[in-house]
Structures are given as structure tokens and as C-alpha cells.
Design brief:
single chain, mainly alpha, 1 helix, about 80% helix
């Protein structure tokens, strides 16, 4: 396999992981703001 193909696959694998982390952080923030609105 050429090195560019593996780099491309890594980039494609990294994007959904990054999106998952952002979604989890956003969900946690929203949950916290519902449970403890006096902090925000």
C-alpha cells in the first residue's frame, strides 16, 4: 500500500472520532446545564 493511502485512511478514521468527542462534550454540557442551571 502506498503511504498516502494509509494517511488518507487515518484521516477518515480520525474525523468520526473527533465528531464523537465533540458530541459527547456538547451533550455533557447540555445535561449539566439542565441539572444545575444556577451554575450557568
Amino acid at each position: 500500500m502506498p503511504p498516502s493511502a494509509t494517511a488518507c485512511e487515518e484521516g477518515r478514521m480520525l474525523e468520526p472520532i473527533f465528531a464523537l468527542v465533540v458530541a459527547l462534550l456538547l451533550g455533557g454540557y447540555l445535561l449539566l446545564s439542565i441539572v444545575r442551571p444556577e451554575k450557568f
